[in-house]
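Blackboard transcription, Thursday session:
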Amino acid sequence: MSTNKNHVTINNSQTICITPGVSTVVDVMIALEINKKVAIAIDNQIVRQSRWPKTTLNGGENLSIFAAIAGG
Amino acid sequence: MADLLTDQALNELELSDREFIRYSRQVMLEQWNEQGQLTLKKAKVVIIGCGGLGNIAASFLAGAGVGQLVLVDDDCVELSNLPRQLAFEEGDIENAKALALANRLREQNEHIEVVAQTQRFDADDAHHLFNQADLVLDCTDNFATRYALNHSCVAHAIPLLSASVIGWQGQLLLVDPNQMDYGCYQCLFDSAQDSAANCTTSGVSGAAVGIIASYQANEAIRYLLGQRSSLASSLLLIDSQSLQNQILKRAYDENCSICNAPRQKENVNVD
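(Written on the board underneath:)
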């Protein structure tokens, strides 16, 4: 079994490799090829968009990535 | 729009015997009780959007005895609305949603007052619309109105309970002027959201709308009763397919042009 320290989990399903202490939220977005507007939470704490470039991942985190919905 | 009740009339309100019997099952709840019922009777809630969410949330608030409901919507009822907009009947098709819903709520509860506005939410009218309002429900179906409503509620310091739904999923949060450390709608989703997805283009489960509107109504009642809402500090994601809900903690965005501007002004004044 691979160690969690080299991975983060996306929406409780997909996992992707990261470099602990180096990879940022923006790196994950690029790796996932997400270019639409989304919000992101790390371990259930939403990270404001302005902090994505400086928020580094240690490995083992669960990232929730979701878009706003407007229907009523 | 005429003002609904004067301050004096509000202070003189009490529950009639008929009302007490009507509300007896909810008054039995420790967190609700007779005083809480009176609080609901004195409350004014503005509901923006009378579609799926507004239909069901308004019906629960009317049933619970919220004394004054203001309904705002410029749409008319269509045949494709009926699976999820349960207050409407086939005979309501082509009628204004706000008027049709207001009529249904008046039939539902003789003890409440309902005002219908058959126009789209207009920020320029917010001061009048929000006058003496205790809470605003966002039940709209587009981002433009959601952002405008968020801006107006922050500017007028009126709590906003925002719900949205698409497909099988929903989102719910409370923007509470007394807890702005957790930010507003725009802190969470900046104003450049992709706007293509809505119920018309992506589809929606009527029962999912019911679940999310029920959460919204329940939280509205709890808020009016003075109970602490965890949604003031968080966002609830609801997935009616997997039956998994997720609560995510929020924080204000220091770059938010809506709720951070007053914060900066306060800091300048303090300095």
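Lecturer's comment: The interface with chain B takes residues 36-37, 39, 41, 44-46, 48-50, 64, 66-72 of chain A (CB under 8 Å).
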